[in-house]
Amino acid sequence: MDKDSGHKYNCNFCDYETSKVYCLRNHMMDHTGERPFECDLCPASFKQKSKLTVHKRIHTGEKRFKCHLCPYSANQSRNLKIHLLTHTGEKQFKCHLCPYFANEKGSLKTHLMTHSGEKPFKCHLCLYSAVVNGNLKRHLLIHSGVKPFKCDLCLYSTNRNESLKIHLLTHTGEKPFKCHLCPYSANQHGHLKSHLLTHTDKKLFKCHLCPYSTNRNGHLKRHLLTHTGEKPFKCHL
What we know:
Layout: E1 9-10, E2 17-18, H1 21-32, E3 37-38, E4 45-46, H2 49-60, E5 65-66, E6 73-74, H3 77-88, E7 93-94, E8 101-102, H4 105-116, E9 121-122, E10 129-130, H5 133-144, E11 149-150, E12 157-158, H6 161-172, E13 177-178, E14 185-186, H7 189-196, E15 205-206, E16 213-214, H8 217-228
Antiparallel strand pairs: 1-2, 3-4, 5-6, 7-8, 9-10, 11-12, 13-14, 15-16
């Protein structure tokens, strides 16, 4: 084990410094892109063995961290701690640009990029870029063609565990996300959030080229095509 004798180890590529050799080794992987610990079930790879161990729980379905207040369980202690804040209602990190607030500093930092437009994680195979590294990793599965998450009831497979969970609801017909203002229900939380905007006058998605605004991001994307003249949907007949 490295002893902290006051000596500082410096990175050759940036201003990072540390008193621990192993910390410098881990940091250098950010520059080299090295991920020596690889999952044998999907293309995911990690700098640390402990991260790989946690990742493998996605494939096994193991969720050993259980909430003592509700049936929720998680595959990481950190996720359980964040979940417990939903019982207390505590959300201490607030955005200074909009009403958004979060119970985790990292979530607020990621949210702020939606205002700045910053997407620091870039695909080396196409023009895709992402706000968070996890989204980039999922995107890379598109290029690899690997779809490790398979439905037991039909031939459906996907590269995202979340997509498989949503797909399974099509077999059960379950729509757990219900509107408190009308009979509407959905099988995805995102669909419910979009629906709730129809009950308000809020139109959060604004065109930067004209006064148009809408309550749905998909509508804004379609509207922007009227400025570019692009017509991507072509008849094959």
